[in-house]
Design goal:
Helices cover 74% and strands 0% of the residues. With 105 residues, the protein is mostly helical. The protein has one domain (2-76). 0% of the residues are buried.
């Protein structure tokens, strides 16, 4: 009987250590691969870099658009810009002119 209770206490201790190791392992794995883990942080950093470069591109594109719009304002119409827009909207071209169409994506 003494050996049976000794075996029971050893198995109980072993079970407790195993459970503790499993809990620590669970939190360790989640710290690395979880939603807020180290891998997720690296992916977020890469996404931040990509979105920052896209933001810079869009700001540049907006500034160019605002520049073109400012040339069309009634207070100071640029004759070249007006000529370009009229020709584009009316599909007009002089037969002696060389036309180069540049389309953006």
């Amino acid at each position: 009987m003494v050996s049976r209770s000794r075996l029971k206490s050893v198995l109980t201790g072993l079970a407790l250590y195993t459970m503790a190791a499993m809990i620590v392992g669970y939190f360790g794995v989640n710290a690395y691969t979880g939603k807020y883990g180290l891998n997720a942080r690296q992916e977020l950093d890469q996404e931040i870099i990509a979105l920052t470069s896209e933001l810079a591109r869009l700001k540049k594109e907006r500034a160019e658009g605002e520049q073109r719009v400012s040339l069309l304002r009634p207070s100071g119409i640029d004759p070249d810009m007006l000529d370009e827009r009229v020709r584009y909207q009316l599909d007009y071209a002089n037969p002696r002119e060389l036309i180069r169409v540049i389309r953006s994506k």
